[in-house]
Amino acid sequence: MQDFESVFTELIGKQDETDDQQLVQLAINQIPALYKELLTLRDLESYSYKEIEEITHLTESQVKVYLFRARKAIKEKILELETV
Length: 84
Hints:
76% helix; 0% strand; elongated
């Protein structure tokens, strides 16, 4: 599975770095707080699914589902923002 940052690089690789960062930040600002928290724990701080389960009191399955939804939401927001 790809990590948080590589997904963004793949999605918006043709724009210059400043535009990339702005797009990603705009997309992240539009997703639910829980999604941001889970992405931060998993992809930026490298916690395991089990550790995230203990921190958030979600089941491991819920963590995986929410992370999938979070990545999907960010991809969709970036694509939406690119077409504006």
